Structures are given as C-alpha cells and as structure tokens.
Amino acid sequence: MLNFLSCRENGTLDPLALVRAETTRRTFSLELSKEQDVKRIHASGANSLDLDPAESRYLLSGGADGVIAVYDTHNLSGTPSSTAEAVCTVGRSHRHVHKYSVETVRWYPHDTGLFTSSSMDKTLKVWDTNALLPAEVFQFEGTVYSHAMSPVAKKHCLIAVATMTSIVTLCDLKSGSSTHILKGHRAAVKCARWSPRNPYLLATGSQDNKVLLWDVRSAKSSLMSLDQHNGELATSTAAVNTAHNGHVNGLCFTPEGLHLLSFGTDHRLRLWDTATGRNTLVNYGKICNDSKKSVQFTVSRGSSPDVVFVPDDSSIAMFDVFGGTSLHRLVGHYNYVQCCVFNPDTQELYSGGSDSNILVWVSDL
Q1: Contact indicator for 106, 147 with CB cutoff of 8 Å
Q2: Where do the WD repeats lie (predicted)?
Q3: Packing angle between helix 2-10 and helix 15-28, nearest 10 degrees?
Q4: What is the pLDDT of residues 65-89, one digit of tens each?
C-alpha cells in the first residue's frame, strides 16, 4: 500500500489503480463483523434484502413473517460498535401488512421515496416510504416469487413480476396497469433481473430449467433461450436448450452488464455472455441449492477480479466470476442463507437467512 501511495505521489500510477487495489483488498478480506450488527426484527427468516442505490445507506428487508423493515446502516454513534436500528417497519399490526411471506423487496432505483414488495399473498405493493402506505397494489393469480425494476431505465417504469404461472407480467408504475405480459416459459417463473446496461433487456429463470432473455419492446417472443450445451447436444433429450438440469431460481448480471450469472437447483452456477447467449463454461463446482424460493446473490463492484457471493447452505461462497476459483467462505448463519447484497461504497456485505438474522460482513484489515 505504501508503494501505491508513493507511486501515486510521483505521478507514475493511474489514480484509479490505488482505488482498485484497496477495493480488492477489502472485498477479499471480508469476515463477520465483531462490532456491527443489525437489530433482529423478523420472527421468521429474512427472505430478501436491498440497499438503496442513491446513498447505499438504507437497508430494506422482507421476511417470511410478512414484515418489512428499513434500517439505517450508517454508524452515527461515534463509537466503533453499532447496531443498525430499524427506522421504520411494516409490522404485523400494520393494516396494510402482507398476509403471508414477503419474497422480494426492492428500492425504487432513483431515490428512497418509494420501495416495492411482493409476497406469497399474490400481491405486489408499491410503498410511499415517508407515509409508509401503499401507493399502488397489483393483484396476481398466483404466488409472486420475485420482481425487479431496471436500474438504468429513463423512458419506462416497468416492474417485471415472476409468479407461479408461466407468464412474466410487466407492471407500469406510470399508468398503474399490468396488461403487458411475456409468454415463453412452460412452468412457474422463479426470478427476473434487468440488465444494468440495457434498459430494455430482461432475464427470467423458471422451473422449466430455462433462462430467457427478452427485449421488452417486442414481447411477442424472447430474444433467446440460453443453452448450457451451446447447441452442441444434437439429441432430442429434455436437456436441449435448457440453462440448467434443475429449476432456475437465481439470476444476477455483472456490474457492467456484459455477463449474466444463473443459479439452479442442479447445484450449479453458470456464467453467460449476454451478447451471444453462450455458456462461458466457467466451472464453479457444486454449490448447494435446494431452495424452493428465489435465491438472491450478488457480485462485487470495483475489485479485480470481480467476486460473486452465492448462498451455499448456511454459508456464503465467494468465487472469482471469470475464473471460477473458490476464494473464501463466509460462515456465521445457523440456517440456510436466503439472500445477500453488496455495498459498493464500503465493500461490506449484508446477508439474511432462515435463522432470522441479518449479518454484516466487513474487511478484517
């Protein structure tokens, strides 16, 4: 580090090289924080987490008990030890609380004035954060497993909703309608993710073992169906044109949007080129995934190499995204890990599990 500072002072080093080196060091040295924790709110498991994109400060959580909480993660106590308190909650006594388990929570991509939640009670709710009241409620025929909003869209406000039906519904926040649908899967859709690069590119994963890429401007059919064999399996088996040999219940784009990671109940993680749809054939080994829900995993930002954090039973596995090398394993939960989210500003990781705990992982150096 001193060498980096000396080279930077002499002008012989790119200023971003020092930032990249420190970001990488902090990302690779994560361990369970001894001084930071998050107040336990959920009586059952923590199913979903999201960190606000505006300040990377407010952590949103949704639980199996139907409760939603917003935590302030900034330490304003003036001491090293701190507990992130809930600044507001939609508890069981709230008249608009979800009846059943909250499966996904997401901040509005541009500010903290709105957030969204979807639930086993077949609803998607759009919340006014300040009033803590639903501004809009969308009803569906089946259980809602996941939903997503584009982080870069400026010309649309669409929410992609994955349900137990084979149809992906696009809900428009501007009009309040949910008439736009995407047909292509043959079983329940478990997960949906928008590209951080293209505001019209959507990826969906399903119980039919497929991952479909869509251009939502022309929704008559998908752009492509990702094939784990890259078209080289010339037989009529069921594995042809499938992304996994099990249900696909997790998706995550790399930060620059050029690649997509998919996670399946075949205990495999796969990396895809989003331009060509080809399987890059990176081997991450076996990663436990027996979840019947959507699994939320994440990728670091700014480190070299990029790191993917994947729930693996009661731990979180860390892999080099493009090399597949196992880097580290984060152990701290007492039960299945359901979700994790990375803070790109502080290189901290937050994880939620079936043990109802939300844990904070920080650099040990």
Answers
A1: yes
A2: 95-128, 182-224, 241-282, 330-361
A3: 170
A4: 999 999 999 988 778 899 999 999 9
Of 182, 217, 213, the C-alpha closest to 195 is 213
58 neighbors 87 (Cβ within 8 angstroms): yes
Q: What is the pLDDT of residue 221?
A: 87
Which amino acid is residue 70, in one-letter code?
V
Q: Secondary structure of 259-270 in the HEC alphabet?
A: EEEEEECCCEEE
Residue 139: strand, helix, or coil = strand
Report d(CA 176, CA 180) in Å as an integer: 11
* pLDDT tens profile 19-64: 888 899 999 999 999 999 999 999 999 999 999 999 999 999 999 9
Q: Within 10 A of 165 (CB to CB), how many other CB atoms are there?
A: 16
Please say if the pLDDT value at position 241 is more than 90. no
Structure tokens, 311: 């729930």
What is the three-class DSSP state of 171? Answer: strand
37: amino acid identity, one letter = D
CB-CB contact of 338 with 289 (8 Å): no
The pLDDT of 128-142, averaged and rounded, is 96
How far is Cα 19 from Cα 104, in angstroms, rounded to an integer?
Answer: 33
H or E segment and range at residue 136: strand 133-139
Strand partners, 28: none
Cβ atoms within 10 Å, residue 359: 22
**Residue 303, strand partner residues:** none
Measure the CA–CA gap between 206 and 191, rounded to whole angstroms.
7
Cα gap 91→88, rounded to integer Å: 9
- Output 233-240 pairs: Cβ under 8 A, ≥24 positions apart: 238/209
- Length of the chain, in residues: 365
